[in-house]
Amino acid sequence: MKKILFVLIPFFYLGQNQLFIPDTLSGNFIPLEIKHDHVHFYSGNQTETMGINGPILAPTIILNKGQQVTMQVTNVLSDTTTIHWHSMHVAPQNDGGPHTTIPPFSIWEPSFEVKDYAATYWYHPHLHHMTNMHVQMGIAGMIIVRDPQETILNIPRT
């Protein structure tokens, strides 16, 4: 058993890249640019991707309960898309569901008050029949909402 383990560990380790961790954004104005890009997951192999503010995935957005925020979503894709703030309590015109499309090379600027308590949410495209493809290509990010009750807890912040 030990001989097999020593053979498999180097094999799996050789092709791996460092874990990609997206940047964070916070504040009352959050600029998000959706675009085509590429990533070299393995040396010599280029993979076409889509991302927000980078080649794949999207920045983690940190918000506070009660905060007023404007998201400036710029679609640089050649496809129509949307951005949906998954499970957050926002008005329909700010929700980013299938009915709120962002045509190619245009900007959508939803503005809303963060009404949610501390939790981890995520954001992603929600275009009818395109959600799966856009998310699989890399358009998805986390939203961390903080509130006064959460801030007094002794939990990790980084």
Please, could you describe this protein's structure?
The strands form 2 sheets. A 5-stranded mixed β-sheet has the order 1-4-10-9-6. Strands 2, 3, 5, 7 and 8 form a 5-stranded mixed β-sheet that branches. The longest helix is centred in the N-terminal third of the chain and has 13 residues, at 2-14. It has a single domain (27-151), classed as Cupredoxins -  blue copper proteins (Immunoglobulin-like, Sandwich), CATH 2.60.40.420. The chain is α/β, with parallel strands linked by helices. The mean pLDDT is 90. The protein has helices spanning 2-14, 92-95, 131-137, 148-151, and strands at 24-26, 29-42, 45-52, 60-64, 68-75, 84-86, 106-108, 111-113, 119-124, 141-146. A hairpin with a 2-residue loop joins β2 and β3.
By CATH reckoning, the class would read Mainly Beta
Shape: globular
Give start-end ranges of low-pLDDT stretches: none
CATH superfamily: Cupredoxins -  blue copper proteins
Overall number of strands: 10
User: In order across it, which strands form the biggest sheet?
Assistant: 1-4-10-9-6
Question: What's the layout of helices and strands?
Answer:
Elements lengths: L1 H13 L9 E3 L2 E14 L2 E8 L7 E5 L3 E8 L8 E3 L5 H4 L10 E3 L2 E3 L5 E6 L6 H7 L3 E6 L1 H4 L7
Parallel strand pairs: 1-4, 2-5, 4-10
Antiparallel strand pairs: 2-3, 5-7, 5-8, 6-9, 9-10
List keywords for this structure.
single chain, 158 residues, alpha/beta, Immunoglobulin-like, five-stranded mixed β-sheet, 4 helices, 37% strand
In short:
With 158 residues, the protein is α/β, with parallel strands linked by helices. Helices cover 18% and strands 37% of the residues.
